[in-house]
Specification:
single chain, 92 residues, alpha+beta, Ubiquitin-like (UB roll), two-stranded antiparallel ribbon, 21% helix, globular
Length: 92
């Protein structure tokens, strides 16, 4: 599964995207856990003390922010889906 990263997350994973060998139909939560397992420094960027996704981190599945999908972070992701992970950003 291809996962795209943005901004400050790119140096941590070493580029714009990575490919993980994940089962078909993993949940968004399982996908995030697999990313953090492969790249442990991402934990402090993506997850709080209870291993929950920070509200300021955005995981988009096919352009939709995962918490707003019908099943939220338990929504199923396939290898055909586009996955983008954005850190908190600020500016103006």
């Amino acid at each position: 599964m291809k996962i795209n990263f943005y901004a400050t997350l790119r140096p941590i994973v070493g580029g714009r995207s990575i490919t993980l060998d994940l089962e078909e139909q993993v949940t968004v939560s399982q996908l995030v856990a697999a990313v953090v397992e492969r790249y442990p420094p991402l934990r402090e960027q993506l997850l709080d003390e209870q291993d929950q996704l920070f509200p300021h981190v955005h995981v988009f599945i096919n352009g939709r922010d995962a918490p707003y999908l019908p099943d939220g972070l338990e929504a199923r992701v396939t290898t055909r889906d586009t996955v983008d992970i954005f850190p908190a950003t600020a500016g103006g």
